[in-house]
Design a protein that fits this description.
Length: 568
């Protein structure tokens, strides 16, 4: 079945909803939001700790300081013109949400409250208790209701992006609710499909974060940038991986080893627990490897985060969800006991390559949010910069796509019917497979490989072994047998399609990581422990080829600060 819209927003997280609102402000345009989950179940609702922005320029914060923190946190791999634009736009988005009714937490003088976050040298994270993403999503959702030019395709899995002569023409999708295969034509596409952390077993991310958008973009010929930089969040709850927000340390929580020492004293004496995430994660793994951790289940050895000294009142006011999670999942009440944590896969600094406006090299396609790599975070993202990035580039891409779509007289003609048939066959081909492989078992193998060989510390031989394993799993993909043969809500088939996407992305990560013979931000090679600005101050681009990714490199934009040693 064929559908037509002017603008297709792929994904309904913070980036997608913000982009849709901006596009919908053009009443002449017909906007569609397509999401593989119910609109409000996107991972963004899980964001906890806060959104960074300069709100108090008169009390000591400044755009320059926020920019410097971001550039230093990124280990100098971010584009500094992008950082400048980000810090200047960020407060506008926070105030806009305020006007749209968000319940930001407040200071006693009733101004918007802000809390400390890792790597920021000012208390800069605006928040709504420890449910910031939920409040932001709710506010965007409410605001969206006033536009009647927006259609929704909830629970609709997009399988590919189609182009003709390097111009976007539509997406193919499988409507999970009806089982129908759709071709949704459009003038412009905004990819806002989030990250891919579910290729790791121990992760803070929702089950749905499988990087479909990145994999589709890659197959459509778009370059994927800097994917070797994966962020590990220092405080994933053991053993579930559920996030214990960085706000727990921002509010004053201590990280302790098995000798009850605040070990961050050794690694980042000036920032302690609120050093950037790459540094805290490496410190935790070092403590554990040197025997100062606690033994955990399935090799998940851990350290403690201790909130007891904060007192019940503060924990209940500022970190109510953390308390609830610790009590429900670990039967631990953080008012009385420390919480077991270790680094968990948390964020992809890389994504689809875009320019400063979120535009990709294919005409008519923009990308925003975690799926994009506009090059704001470089080699390591600072906590609380991501939700704000979603808002800032959601707005920018929504506006850019709307201006473009308004100028196009007609929706581009569809590709050949055979192309659509081929894609339908690719999606449903597993119904005819009598193979012996299970999508769930292959995903587990992938996750074990990534957890054990592509983690906080990496080495050449381990990365090579991981790449060999990924190639082996890829070869077994055609033999996946899907037991459920129905077209409606077939989560068995969905799982098979997702694992396919995750494997392509794992291959890009490992190839980029193997090539990058240096340590920078979230990419830490034991065999190349130093940063190498002479050879590696550059972005990686990965292009699809049938034989695996082809790597290329482009320069980093440096406008304000030359790289210096990164010390905290
Ligand atoms: C537990 C947790 C806490 C966090 N806390 C913070 C925080 O406090 N501050 C901060 O700045 N950042 C935080 N982050 C990071 C931040 O929340 C995310 O980077 C951000 O919300 C991503 O938003 P997004 O709009 O890019 O994508 P998402 O919210 O992940 O949404 C992706 C969307 O794409 C859709 N989609 C994907 N594939 C398909 C497909 N094939 N077909 C159709 N639709 C598809 C999904 O249905 C979904 O709607 C946190 C992350 C986690 C996991």
């Amino acid at each position: 079945m064929s559908k037509k819209h002017d603008i297709i927003v792929l994904g309904s997280g913070l980036a997608g909803l913000r982009a849709a609102i901006e596009a919908a402000r053009h009443p002449e345009l017909d906007v569609a939001i397509v999401s593989k989950v119910q609109l409000m179940r996107s991972h963004s609702v899980c964001a906890e700790g806060g959104s960074a922005a300069v709100m108090q320029p008169n009390e000591g914060d400044s755009f320059e300081l926020h920019a410097w923190d971001t550039v230093r946190g990124a280990d100098f791999l971010c584009d500094q013109d992008v950082v400048k634009r980000f810090v200047e736009e960020a407060p506008k988005e926070i105030l806009l949400l305020e006007h749209w009714g968000i319940p930001w937490s407040r200071r006693p003088d009733s101004r918007i409250a802000q809390r400390p976050f890792g790597g920021h040298s000012y208390d800069r994270a605006v928040f709504a208790a420890d449910k910031t993403g939920f409040a932001e999503m709710q506010t965007l959702y409410d605001t969206l209701q006033k536009y009647n030019n927006v259609s929704r395709y909830d629970e609709c899995y997009v399988s590919s992006i189609l182009t003709k002569d390097n111009v976007f023409c539509g997406v193919t999708a499988w409507d999970l609710t009806s089982g129908e295969f759709l071709f949704i034509q459009g003038k412009a596409l905004i990819i806002a499909t989030g990250g891919a952390c579910r290729m790791f077993g121990f992760t803070t991310y929702s089950l749905t974060a499988t990087g479909d958008g990145l994999a589709m973009a890659y197959r459509a010929g778009l370059p994927i940038k800097d994917l070797e930089f994966v962020q590990f969040h220092p405080t994933g709850l053991v053993p579930s991986g559920i996030l214990i927000t960085e706000a727990a340390r921002g509010e004053g929580g201590y990280l302790l080893n098995n000798k009850s020492e605040r070990f961050m004293e050794k690694y980042a004496p000036s920032k302690m627990e609120v050093a950037p995430r790459d540094i805290v994660s490496r410190s935790e793994i070092t403590e554990i490897e040197e025997g100062r951790g606690f033994p955990g289940p399935e090799g998940l050895d851990y350290v403690h985060i201790d909130l007891r000294h904060l007192g019940a009142a503060k924990i209940n006011e500022r970190l109510p969800m953390i308390r609830e999670v610790a009590m429900k999942f670990n039967f631990i009440d953080p008012i009385y006991e420390p919480i077991p944590v270790r680094p968990a896969a948390h964020y992809f600094m890389g994504g689809v390559h875009t320019d400063i406006n979120g535009a990709t090299p294919i005409e008519g396609i923009w990308t925003a949010g975690e799926a994009a790599c506009v090059s704001l975070h470089g080699a390591n993202r600072l906590g609380s910069n991501s939700t704000t990035e979603c808002l800032v580039w959601g707005k920018i891409t929504g506006d850019e796509a709307a201006k473009y779509a308004s100028k196009q007289k007609a929706i581009p003609s569809p590709p050949k019917a055979a192309t659509l048939k081929d894609e339908e066959a690719r999606v449903f081909r597993r119904f005819s497979s009598e193979g012996k492989e299970s999508a769930y078992a292959l995903r587990r193998e992938l996750q074990k490989t990534m957890d054990s060989k592509v983690g906080v510390f990496r080495t050449g031989p381990e990365l090579q072994a991981a790449l060999d394993k990924i190639c082996d799993i890829k070869q077994r993909l055609p033999d996946i047998k899907v037991k459920d043969r129905g077209h409606i809500y077939n989560t068995d088939l969905l799982s098979a399609l997702e694992v396919d996407n995750l494997l392509d992305l794992a291959e890009i990560i490992i190839s980029g990581a193997l090539a990058r013979s240096e340590s920078r931000g979230g990419h830490s090679r034991r065999d190349f422990p130093a940063r190498d600005d002479v050879n590696w101050l550059k972005h990686t681009l990965a292009y699809y080829t049938p034989k695996g990714p082809r790597l290329d490199y482009i320069p980093v934009t440096i406008t304000m600060w030359q790289p210096v040693e990164r010390k905290y």
